[in-house]
Design brief:
Length: 351
């Protein structure tokens, strides 16, 4: 099967497996695991922050950041389709005790005028105080869209006026950096904290990092323990993350190029299926609304042709390129789309 469901399906490289086998270990929740500390140091350096803490997942990273930043009962401003709202099981309210308000915007980039009007540094008679602004880049639901640096800079400037922190959900921040042609630190500098995954396009089997000031990360460690994230000999997993940061970032450009080629091939079959202008990184959103079949039908028929795709909603599929998707896999996926599209045409004509 050609697996385009997500870059989370990537398997560790042989170098990662060997690093895991020989990793120097300790008790990370006590005196510290030396390999975990090595990963945390490398992670902080990669995004230009003072310190980092290793956690199990991007979801835990965002939760811990919310807990460490947020004033309980305050309001978090973020995009309506942010991962924190769409995919994290309501933890922002149930566990962090925070409310949320959505910022109008486009493809993950907030409307700056609207954001300015929504910022409220102090609790008022009829308004909650703004505890945090969260920005996601690349933006998953927007098809891997990259928030422009100028937008991040503007967000940081206006929040700084009120002393309101900014968290960057950068699960795929290195994809964003590669797309912009800048170091990841140029993105992260606009946030008080940033988190990223090593288990997506970077191909490690486990884990995310939260990065920020040393004081913030000390606080984050406490909340990591609170939510059950304190680990023991975690260097077994951290070792793969070290290799991911050292070896895997430059090759993300290959995933972006293959996503663009995949999108172009599908666009040639039916222009209504994909907007080429919306493909910025390694995610391709397929719109089947005008095809005569829903996303679940497309998903099933593509699987029969040897391609696994994710049904994002009733009218959209999400395709994600990664290390295991080579040029031959792209060609195979395009061929499968051609076959499925041909099979759906009679249904469209009957409508």
């Amino acid at each position: 099967m050609i697996d385009l469901r997500s870059d989370t399906v990537t398997l560790p490289t042989e170098e990662m497996r060997e690093a895991m086998r020989v990793a120097e270990l300790g008790d990370d929740a006590r005196e510290g695991d030396p390999t975990v500390r090595r990963l945390e140091t490398a992670a902080a350096a990669a995004v230009g922050k003072e310190a980092a803490v290793f956690v199990t997942s991007g979801t835990m990273a965002n939760l811990v950041a919310l807990l460490a930043h947020g004033r309980r009962g305050g309001e978090v401003l973020l995009d309506a389709e942010a991962h924190i709202l769409r995919s994290e099981m309501g933890a922002i309210a149930q566990l962090a005790g925070l409310f949320h308000r959505t910022i109008p915007g486009r493809r993950g980039a907030p409307d700056l005028r609207a954001l300015r009007a929504m910022l409220n540094p102090e609790l008022g008679a009829n308004r909650l105080a703004t505890s945090l602004v969260s920005i996601e880049t690349t933006h998953n639901s927007a098809g891997g869209a990259v928030v422009p640096l100028a937008t991040l800079q503007a967000v940081r400037a206006m929040t700084a006026e009120h002393g309101i922190p900014v968290h960057i959900d950068g699960a795929r921040v290195f994809n964003a950096a590669v797309a912009l042609g800048v170091p990841a630190a140029d993105i992260a500098r606009h946030g008080d904290s940033v988190c990223f995954c090593v288990s997506k396009g970077l191909s490690a089997p486990f884990g995310s990092l939260i990065c920020g000031t040393a004081t913030f990360i000390e606080r984050a460690r406490a909340f990591r323990r609170m939510v059950g994230g304190a680990m023991r000999q975690a260097g077994v997993m951290a070792a793969a993350g070290v290799v991911a940061l050292e070896r895997m970032v430059p090759r993300l450009a290959e995933d972006h190029a293959r996503a663009a080629r995949l999108a172009a091939g599908i666009h040639a079959i039916d222009r209504a299926l994909v907007d080429l202008r919306a493909v910025e990184t390694n995610i391709v959103m397929i719109d089947v609304a005008r095809s005569g079949a829903d996303a679940a039908t497309w998903q099933s028929r593509l699987a029969a042709e040897g391609v696994q795709a994710g049904a994002w909603n009733p009218t959209q599929l999400r395709l994600v390129t990664h290390r295991h998707i080579d040029d031959a896999a792209v060609d195979g996926a395009i061929a499968a789309f051609r076959t499925v599209r041909a099979g759906i045409k009679p249904a469209l004509a009957a409508l």
